Amino acid sequence: DGGITQSPKYLFRKEGQNVTLSCEQNLNHDAMYWYRQDPGQGLRLIYYSQIVNDFQKGDIAEGYSVSREKKESFPLTVTSAQKNPTAFYLCASRQQGLNTEAFFGQGTRLTVV
Amino acid sequence: KQEVTQIPAALSVPEGENLVLNCSFTDSAIYNLQWFRQDPGKGLTSLLLIQSSQREQTSGRLNASLDKSSGRSTLYIAASQPGDSATYLCAVSGNQFYFGTGTSLTVIP
């Protein structure tokens, strides 16, 4: 099946730890995105990548890092510098071009314990 | 910066009713507008995509319209069913996607 796979579904982080969220797609899409969703707020863009080995900061990039070494993979690391990381994280992808349709994964819920 | 607003924030209707969800955006320079459905604790499922040159798109009981000049889109759901209960999000596409905060829909059997 073609699609976007996010793992794990649930993730728990201790104070001071870095954690990495996985996002893999087999849709052959060029562009990939990471969003954060908090209750009562719209989705906010963390990072996006339009091509391998290139990525740009979104609106709330502080405390996060990404890499794009392969077309199908766009992992997100939540670092200890992110002071309020508890949220629902969504990964998306689309074909190259600003008028193409976006597809989303099923999300990862990160909780600080 | 693009701002997207969805009204109402929540809506409760009896089964079988036709309903309209609203989405407005401040910058008309968009490439497309996409409507999504989100079930609790799940990702977003794409419902309809309207290109900036189009006026509407239909899929089954769903019809979405776009008036780019006025910065508005509507999602029309015909003959609502309990299975339609979810949060509906609209997003406009520029260099990135800009999302509204969604409309939480409950269809009462």
What does the model show?
- The complex is a heterodimer of chains A (113) and B (109).
- Chain A is mainly beta.
- Helices cover 0% and strands 49% of the residues of chain A.
- Chain A contains no helices and eleven strands.
- In chain A, a hairpin with a 2-residue loop joins strand 5 (44-51) and strand 6.
- Chain A is globular.
- The model of chain A has no long low-confidence stretch (mean pLDDT 93).
- Chain B is mainly β.
- Helix content of chain B is 0%, strand content 59%.
- Chain B has no helices and eleven strands.
- Chain B has strands at residues 4-7, 10-14, 19-25, 32-38, 44-51, 56-59, 62-67, 72-77, 86-93, 97-99, 103-108.
- In chain B, strands 2, 4, 5, 9, 10 and 11 form a six-stranded mixed β-sheet that branches.
- In chain B, strand 9 and strand 10 form a beta hairpin.
- Chain B is globular.
- The mean pLDDT of chain B is 95.
- At the A-B interface, strand 9 and strand 10 of A face strand 4, strand 5, strand 9 and strand 10 of B.
Helix amount of chain A: under 10%
Mean pLDDT of chain B: 95
Shape of chain A: globular
Biggest interface and residues each: A-B, 25 and 26 residues
User: Helix tally of chain A?
Assistant: 0
What is the terminal separation of chain B in angstroms?
41 Å
Query: Could you tell me the radius of gyration of chain A in angstroms?
Result: 13 Å
DSSP helix fraction of chain B = under 10%
* Count of individual beta strands of chain A: 11
Oligomer designation: heterodimer
H/E element sequence of chain B: EEEEEEEEEEE
Task: Report a brief summary of the structure.
The complex is a heterodimer of chains A (113) and B (109). Chain A has 113 residues and is an all-beta fold. Chain A contains no helices and 11 strands.
SSE diagram, text form:
The complex is a heterodimer of chains A (113) and B (109).
Chain A: E1 4-7, E2 10-13, E3 19-25, E4 31-37, E5 44-51, E6 54-57, E7 64-66, E8 76-78, E9 87-94, E10 103-104, E11 108-112
Chain B: E1 4-7, E2 10-14, E3 19-25, E4 32-38, E5 44-51, E6 56-59, E7 62-67, E8 72-77, E9 86-93, E10 97-99, E11 103-108
Parallel strand pairs in B: 2-11
Antiparallel strand pairs in B: 1-3, 3-8, 4-5, 4-9, 6-7, 7-8, 9-10, 9-11
